[in-house]
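wait is this the right file?? whatever heres the structure
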């Protein structure tokens, strides 16, 4: 007899509301709301990179499909950028423009993994990467690192402890979402040598490459180009999250397979967004410099008020609130801060070891609103401390 239809167990195991279990209540709340749970920006893109700036007369066919790899001018500009900024010996066949870095990372994981394979993920991590790995029927293996490992030898030992015969790849994100940490080049070189020694792929998430306040961003592909596929994004760098434009750079064989997946899922990245991205690479430097300074100041203020170290990069603070939890756990904590209008993301979305943490994006609202929100949060934490 035929079995009844059933849903995929792998998809059922994926997390759902990763950014906030209270997100649906934001619209119905009366009073001020400070939605700091999603990594976004309050800033509009630079003049020349907004949808209203992209006239059809200047870009014939902007409303049509385009080449599935990406519009040729953008692919060429990415090749130049990857060579000049990232130190990658890039050619056109190593580039794929994707529907945001999210689609790019999904296509990369799909190209590298089979059912039952394992992907090591440095934690705490970007909340969607775990579900992406699960969606391709592979197993995410979390490696707690950013908040607790401060020496190269210890980092490599942490990787060795989690590696198995089924491991096929290591996911590395720097600057880190959500820890705000920027891994130095020496660490990335050590990871690259470790991956080469064990014949593993490297999946590099570098969407915050331009959002660095302390230290210098380095691309891990510099050290192992033959086994590294890197995801970049215009969303974070140029305030275009809603446009859905990112890109992959990697070995031609990997990019060719990722290209197949992208064609069958998205076809081509949104054509208008690609023209905006091209404008950003050509004309967005001044906007980016100004934006980076505003982000830095907002992050430093939030860190000072909350009594945590300043972020080195990205747009987040990752807060250890374990001592402020009561019998209701993280759900109760998020409910309490929501009473003040502050919306945070639960730390468990960034790793199973982080149930007692919360993620705060200090660029998701204008700086005066973020400043108000972090002070409300600080007052709430102080009240909980007094009540202990």
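ok assuming it is, sequence goes like this
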């Amino acid at each position: 007899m035929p079995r009844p239809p059933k849903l995929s167990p792998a998809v059922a195991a994926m997390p759902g509301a990763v950014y906030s279990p209270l997100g649906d209540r934001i619209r119905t709340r009366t009073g001020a709301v400070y939605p700091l749970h999603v990594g976004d920006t309050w800033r509009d893109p630079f003049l020349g990179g907004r949808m209203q700036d992209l006239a059809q007369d200047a870009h014939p066919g902007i409303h049509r499909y385009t080449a599935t790899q990406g519009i040729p001018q953008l692919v060429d500009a990415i090749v130049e950028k990857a060579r000049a900024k990232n130190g990658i010996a890039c050619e056109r066949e190593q580039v794929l423009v994707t529907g945001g870095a999210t689609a790019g990372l999904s296509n990369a994981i799909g190209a590298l993994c089979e059912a039952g394979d394992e992907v090591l993920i440095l934690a705490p991590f970007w909340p969607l990467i775990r579900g992406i790995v699960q969606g391709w029927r592979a197993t995410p293996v979390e490696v707690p690192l950013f908040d607790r490992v401060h020496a190269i030898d210890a980092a490599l030992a942490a990787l060795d402890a989690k590696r198995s015969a089924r491991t096929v790849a290591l996911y590395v994100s720097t600057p880190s979402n959500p820890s705000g940490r920027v891994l130095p080049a020496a660490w990335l070189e050590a990871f690259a040598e470790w991956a080469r020694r064990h014949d593993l792929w490297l999946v590099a998430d570098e969407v915050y490459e331009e959002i660095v306040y302390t230290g210098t961003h380095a691309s891990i592909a510099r050290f192992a180009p033959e086994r590294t596929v890197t995801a970049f994004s215009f969303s974070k760098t140029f305030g275009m999250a809603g446009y859905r434009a990112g890109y992959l750079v990697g070995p031609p064989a990997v990019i060719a397979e990722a290209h197949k997946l992208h064609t069958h899922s998205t076809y081509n990245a949104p054509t208008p967004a690609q023209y905006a991205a091209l404008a950003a690479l050509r004309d967005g430097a001044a906007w980016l410099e100004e934006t980076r300074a505003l982000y830095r100041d907002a992050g430093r203020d939030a860190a000072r008020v909350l009594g945590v170290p300043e972020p080195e990069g990205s747009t987040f603070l990752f807060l250890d609130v374990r001592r402020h939890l009561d019998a209701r756990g993280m759900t109760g904590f998020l409910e309490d801060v929501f009473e003040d209008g502050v919306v945070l993301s639960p730390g468990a979305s960034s790793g199973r070891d982080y149930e007692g943490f919360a993620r705060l994006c200090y660029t998701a609202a204008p700086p005066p609103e973020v400043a108000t929100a972090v002070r409300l949060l600080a007052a709430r934490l102080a009240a909980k401390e007094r009540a202990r």
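The mean pLDDT is 93. so i think its the right one actually
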